[in-house]
Specification:
This protein is an all-alpha fold and about 55 residues long. It is built from two helices and no strands. About 70% of the residues lie in helices and about 0% in strands. About 0% of the residues are buried.
Length: about 55
């Protein structure tokens, strides 16, 4: 009964907890975390690409 009852569905229990926590925190904190996380992924990808070019 997860699909179709709310705008978002997170059927995996751990994702539900993470989603609840993200909604409980103030938006600027969540945004800062997401930005830091995404920039880390981008940096690792750029390092990987630079190693391939060498």
């Amino acid at each position: 009964r997860w699909v179709g009852y709310e705008p978002r569905c997170t059927p995996y229990w751990l994702h539900s907890i993470i989603w609840w926590l993200a909604n409980a925190l103030p938006e600027p904190f969540v945004d800062a975390y997401r930005l830091k996380f995404s920039l880390g992924i981008r940096k690792r990808g750029q390092l990987k690409d630079s190693r391939k070019k060498e």
